[in-house]
Structures are given as C-alpha cells and as structure tokens.
Amino acid sequence: MVKNYAVLLVIIFSGLLQFSCSSEETYVPIQQSAATSPVIFNPETTPFNTLSEYHFFEGNLKDLSPVLGVLPYQPINSLFTDYAHKKRFIWMPENQKATYVNDYSILNFPDGTVFIKNFYYQNTLPNNLSRIIETRLMYKSSQGWKFANYIWNDNQTEAYFDLSGSYTDVSFIENGVTRNTTYRIPSAAECFTCHKSEINSIPIGPKPQNLNKDLAYADGVKNQLQKWIEIGYLEDNLPNTINTVSNWQDPTSTLNDRIRGYLDINCAHCHSQDRHCDYRPVRFAFGDYQGEVSLGVCVDPDTPIAPYSKIVEPNNIARSLIHFRLNNTQEEYRMPLLGRTLIHQEGVILLEQWITSLTQNCE
Fold first, then answer.
1. 293 φ, ψ to 5°?
2. Mean pLDDT for the chain?
3. 3-state DSSP call for residue 10?
4. Is 351 exposed, middle or buried (0-12, 13-18, 19+ CB in 10 A)?
C-alpha cells in the first residue's frame, strides 16, 4: 500500500479523535497545510537535545498536538506507572510499513519507526494543573531498538534529552484520592531491564493481541489495526482472527481472562523466555498461557518467603507470594521491580478477586 498523505490529512487529523479507555486522554489533532510529514527524524543521528527539534507536535508543545504522520494509538492494556497517564504516538518513514509476525509478538517494524510515549499527571497539586513529566522515545535503527528520554521543564515549554535517570516529587488527585509519589524517570540501564530480550531491546506493548481494538476516529469507529493498514503503517497480511487479550478493567470478561491481561502487560516483560526474570518458574505472557500453572497457581516460589507457600495459593491471599509482591512498595520485595513506587490498588483488588475465586487444592 503506498502511503497517501492527502488521505491521512483528511481522515486522521481533521477532527476530534477520542479514545474510550479511562486512563487515556482525548486527542485533538490539528489541520495541516502540507502534504508531507514535517517530522525530522533520522535514527542514525538521533537523539536531538530537545523534543521540539523532531517536529512531532505543532503549536504549544505541551498540547501534544500531532503533526501529519504522527498517529495516536492505544493498547488494550497499559503498564501501571504510579497512576501516570500516557499519550502514545507512532511515526514511520514514508513508504515504510510494519508486518504481522503472530498474534503475541511485536509487529516487525521498519527501521526509522519511532514510538513517542508521554507520561503526565492530571490534577497535580496545589493548583490542579496537568503536568507532563517525561517523553520517552523508542526507535528502531539499523543496530536495533534504542532509547531517548526527554524531561519536561517546569514551565512545560520544552523537554530535554536525559538518560541518566532522576526523581521528581508529584502530588496529584486520581479517582478522587490524593496521592504522593517520588516519580522515577528511568535511566538507560533501567529502560533496558524492562525491554530486554537476550542482549537486545524490544518494545513491549505493540503486539496484535494488544492493539486489536476499535477506536472512535473522526470518520467513525474503526479497528485500530485496520486503521494502520489504511494509512500505510501496516502490511495487509493479518489473519482473519487474532487471539486478543482481555481488557483487565472490563467487568464483562471472566476473572481469569482479566488477570491474564493484567499480568501480561505488567509482568510478562520480565517473566518470559530470554527476559530479565527468565529463571523464575512462571510465564505471564498471554501467548505463553498453558493453564493456571503459567500464572503460578500451586507453583512453589524459587525464592521462598514465609509464610507464602505458593506463588498463588488458591483461595488464600495470605499465603500467595504474588499478592505480597504486588501489594508491597519495598524495593527488595515489590513487583514489578521497576516503574512504580505506589501500590496499584485497583490491580491488587482484581488479583484478590481472582485468587479467592480459585477452588483447586495444591498437592
């Protein structure tokens, strides 16, 4: 499919694009006067010192209004990061497109692809203002996937390249609850820890199983993967059906499907083959599921901690190690290892509901 930017102009950036997930925000694309994308991006010469130099966004930078070719996207499930909201975009070079591999693997993206992930909080105290903390770029060069991180200034006028890692204090209101966190902006080494596959880095979320959902675009509701095909970002070689993850927040799905979706996005990037926690006896990836044993049900922990007899002890929260780790903020115990300092209360509630629903006996 040859990319038609005139079609892109009319369809993608000519109105209001709304996403349905409560953790994501409304995108307001802006009209473009040019027929080609103004983005300046060369993966062999990146990174720039400032975010604005890429020309991903137009107008006030903090509005994150995408230019032509910078496409908003949304996974079905999102990694918990201390309740930070996220606005995600993807850009590809002209006449380049991704191809399907299988349902549970990341798409095969062409060199020059860049993911633009913005982390921010709404209702930050004391003035209930929105504050963007960081913008993470993950881009594919001829040497593989690389990282570039940009930290926003206090005035929210610019973000500056920094991969050394740092902290910033944030007080905010989320779901009616006032929370405080010392937010961790990751270093390059921490980025690699979560994104590693053997000695390489790879994205986590952009898999068909986690992108196969309808979105409300300006020209109507359309499947997200089909939209990528339509605009020329994805080869039209998808299977007729895709084994799709369940939204962990969807109360109409079964508890087992919801917890599988939650553990897939929050835990599988470490607990999978060739990943950081490959040695541990669980496989949380949605595509690795071989029954409840994959999720740790009746599985002995490799690092026992009293009184937790199993990774998941059916109908016994107090003896399930997974609950202890997800409901903990101490660095030596918490899981995920990186990316959070707060307990994800809603995720822990789902875990408790799932554990108490299990009825089998461990031998």
1. -60, -30
2. 85
3. helix
4. buried
The DSSP annotation for 271-320 comes to SSTTSTTTTSS----GGG--SGGGGTBTPPPSS-BTTB-BSB-TT-GGGB
Distances (CA, A) of 67 to 13, 71, 251: 8, 8, 36
Q: Residues with Cβ < 8 Å from 306, sequence gap 6 or more?
A: none
Residue 303 backbone phi and psi in degrees, to 5: -125, 85
Q: For residue 168, what is the DSSP state?
A: E
3-state secondary structure of 213: coil
pTM of the model: 0.85
* pLDDT tens-digit series, residues 266-275: 887 655 555 4
- Region of 308 on the Ramachandran plot (φ > 0 left; ψ -120 to 50 alpha; else beta): beta
Spatial CB neighbours of 69, under 8 Å, sequence gap ≥ 6:
5, 8, 36, 37, 39, 91, 92, 94
Mean pLDDT of 291-314: 87
Q: Is 114 left (phi over 0), alpha (psi -120 to 50) or beta?
A: beta
Report the length, in residues, of the chain.
363
Find all residues with CB under 8 Å of 223, minimum gap 6, and list them: 212, 213, 214, 215
Q: Are 67 and 162 in contact (CB under 8 A)?
A: no
Phi, psi of 5 (to 5 degrees): -70, -20
Other Cβ atoms less than 10 A from the Cβ of 267: the count is 24
**Structure-block tokens of residue 139:** 């881009």
Q: Are 98 and 228 in contact (CB under 8 A)?
A: yes
CA gap 336, 329 in Å, rounded: 10
Is the pLDDT score of 345 beyond 70?
yes
**Helices and strands, counts by H and E, the chain:** 7, 12
Contact 152, 134 (CB under 8 A): yes
Is the bond into 47 cis (omega within 30 degrees of 0)? yes
